[in-house]
Design brief:
With 628 residues, the chain is of the alpha/beta class. It is 39% helix and 15% strand. It has 24 helices and 20 strands. A five-stranded mixed sheet has the order 2-3-1-4-5, covered by helices on one side. Strands 13-12-16-14-15 form a five-stranded mixed sheet, with helices on both faces. It has a four-stranded parallel sheet with strand order 10-9-8-11, with helices on both faces. It starts with 7 loop residues before the first helix and ends with a strand.
């Protein structure tokens, strides 16, 4: 049990002890404990490995042992997300740096016999691409071309261990902020780094902190936005699960800088593992004296609380989020005043997202100049992205700002899954826009994306191939946004509803001339008159798909045809008279009696009755029933 650190010297002494223990524990098996791998059975793998090793005389350490137990000791850890979700569950072997992919519980015995007891690599569990076997994690193209700054510890350390976090240098930046820097110097260092908020808006973090510090008020707050409501986004969740103490450290530093003594983490209740690990991290930090009163004898105090959200997308917006923490309905309010002046409990509030706070400790520890050496001049640093959709390597990545889509999708992501060609990528979730082939070489940063009407958002990248209907994509995101509208303002509440009705009519084959122009008019009205940022950006997916794929809208409306062949109501099923044998199998299978004909003569489909269920296609043994 770690004693409470009453002084900086006590923490430094403990860090030396923890570091020795960490360095001495060279043999380790690190099982991914992120949500994706847990869903794939990684906890069963962890428990099975533990039992097998114990039953075979291996000295298993599941915590950081201060006294090494010799060469026979093996550390068994549950880490956060490794990022390579497509290949999960994954297991890392130290000190070799090997990575086993798609591990099953049935593989545990072989891992014990060959890897643990003999030190041998199991080829069939290694990652193979284009005929090449990659043993080491860092050699795999997916990892090799990343720059993991915020995610560097995810998948490498025990996510539940404050001792391991301290051993690798954790909370050293907090010490520096407490004892070597004045509050103004902390803010100046963050300002100098040009760290911009990773929640989507890209507002300069240091400037926000400076506004809160200068704001009048006896009570000030630090709030971390861990809501992350975008479909296909899981960057913040992975940080909260895999490296919670780094985020807490950033929040405490922010509290010291602006003069706040209370902090809140607003996290989705749908993230139970993140909530559990955050609660443990806060409890451990309080126990050792890093959170609470008189931190390390500095005279500074800070406490952190967790507020669980009910899953409302609008609560990702700052004023709605703070209202939700206060126990009110999550409604956004008119601005100004901003959250920096009247935020949580009507007090000046620093509000940043998880990734932003997780970056702060690095900037304070290594300096703004180090941070400025990564990324682009106006958007320095790295950005974490969640790769989903029709891509070979789905998962979590981190790259320098300014990295091109081409590198992300084809070099890191491995290109398109299956035979489809790249068509578009939705960036920024429901508030973002579609990027196409013409944007593949565009450096991704805040300013470049803004110049083409897009935004990074929280970092979701949904990749789409040539089989994707872009009108349906617009309908999907508009359905999500309309369903999640808080209903406070008319433009968002009624405007998105009208837009959704038009899009649903188009994909159902009932589109009319003038629908495209009406969608554009509604988009313009909503974006200029909606109350909050989420409402103003709600039309973005529609605007961008019309801009780059107008021909698909026109085909749906004028030709009653879906070029991608995905819209069910626009599918045309017919029987080829030259191939049909007249066996009547399709007619007998049709649930709506839409097929008629005479035995041994070609049958015919009544398209007015046909519901495009496809049963006739699967029934025909001669391939006579076709789809156009």
């Amino acid at each position: 049990m770690t004693d409470k650190f009453l002084t900086k010297a006590a923490l430094d002494e403990a860090r030396a002890i923890f570091k020795d223990a960490y360095d001495n524990q060279t043999r380790k098996i690190i099982v991914c404990g992120g949500t994706g791998c847990v869903a794939g059975g990684s906890l069963n793998i962890y428990n099975n490995l533990k039992s097998l090793m114990e039953n075979n005389g291996v000295n298993v350490s599941v915590t950081l042992e201060h006294e090494p137990h010799g060469d026979n000791e093996v550390g068994l850890k549950k880490s956060g997300c490794h990022g390579f979700c497509e290949m999960g569950p994954v297991v890392r072997i130290e000190p070799q740096g090997w990575l086993y992919t798609k591990v099953k519980e049935s593989d545990c015995q072989e891992i014990l016999e060959k890897t643990v007891l003999k030190g041998e690599f199991i080829d069939r569990l290694g990652y193979t691409s284009n005929g090449n076997l990659y043993k080491k994690q860092e050699e795999i193209p997916f990892y090799r071309q990343q720059n993991r700054v915020v995610l560097e510890h995810c998948g490498r350390i025990d996510a539940d261990s404050i001792e391991e976090y301290i051993a690798i240098g954790g909370y050293a930046s907090l010490e520096k902020a407490l004892f070597e820097m004045k509050e103004e110097e902390i803010i100046e260092e963050v300002k100098k780094s040009i760290l911009r908020g990773r929640g989507g808006g890209g507002f300069p973090t240091g400037k926000k902190w400076e506004q809160v510090r200068r704001a009048k008020g006896d009570q000030k707050y630090v709030v971390c936005n861990g809501d992350e409501g975008d479909p296909g986004a899981f960057m913040d969740r992975s940080i909260m699960e895999g490296d919670p103490h780094r985020m807490l450290e950033g929040m405490i530093i922010a509290g010291i800088a602006v003069g706040a003594k209370e902090g809140y983490i607003y996290v989705r209740a749908e993230y139970p593992l993140a909530v559990k690990r955050l609660q443990r991290a806060i409890s451990e930090a309080e126990r050792v004296g890093i959170l609470g009163d008189d931190i390390l004898g500095s005279g500074k105090s800070f406490r952190i609380h967790i507020a669980k959200g009910a899953g409302a997308f609008v609560c990702g917006e700052g004023s709605a989020l703070t209202a939700s923490i206060e126990g009110k309905r999550g409604f956004p309010r008119v601005k100004p005043p901003r959250t920096t002046e009247h935020g949580l409990f009507d007090s000046p509030t620093v509000l940043n997202n998880v990734e932003t706070f997780a970056t702060v400790s690095q900037i304070i520890g290594k300096g703004a100049d180090w941070y400025l050496s990564i990324g682009t001049p106006n958007s320095p640093g790295t950005k974490a992205f969640a790769l989903t959709g029709n891509i070979t390597n789905t998962g979590l990545i981190e790259v320098p700002m300014g990295t091109t889509l081409r590198k992300i999708i084809f070099d890191i992501g491995g290109g398109m899954r299956g035979e489809g060609e790249f068509k578009a990528v939705q960036i920024g979730g429901p508030s973002g826009a579609c990027l196409t082939k013409e944007h593949l070489d565009l450096p991704l940063d805040f300013d470049n994306l803004k110049s083409i009407g897009a935004m990074i958002g929280s970092g979701g990248l949904v990749v789409m191939d040539s089989h994707t209907c872009m009108v349906e994509v617009a309908r999907f995101f508009m359905h999500f946004t309309q369903n999640e509208s808080c209903g406070k303002c008319v433009p968002c509440r009624e405007g998105t509803k009208r837009m959704l009705e038009i899009l649903e009519r188009i994909v159902a084959g009932n589109g009319q001339e003038g629908d495209i122009e009406l969608l554009e008019e509604l988009s313009d009205t909503i974006s200029h008159t909606a109350l909050c940022g989420l409402g103003k950006s709600a039309p973005n997916p529609v605007v961008s798909t019309i801009k780059y794929f107008r021909n698909e809208y026109e085909a749906h409306i004028r030709d009653k045809r879906c070029p991608a062949g995905q819209c069910q109501k626009l599918k045309r099923i017919y029987i080829d008279p030259l191939t049909c044998k007249g066996c009547s199998a399709c007619s007998r299978k049709c649930p709506v009696n839409a097929i008629s004909g005479k035995i041994k003569e070609p049958f015919h489909i009544d398209l007015e009755k046909c519901i495009r269920c496809g049963s006739c296609i699967s029934t025909c043994k001669f391939g006579a029933v076709k789809e156009a």
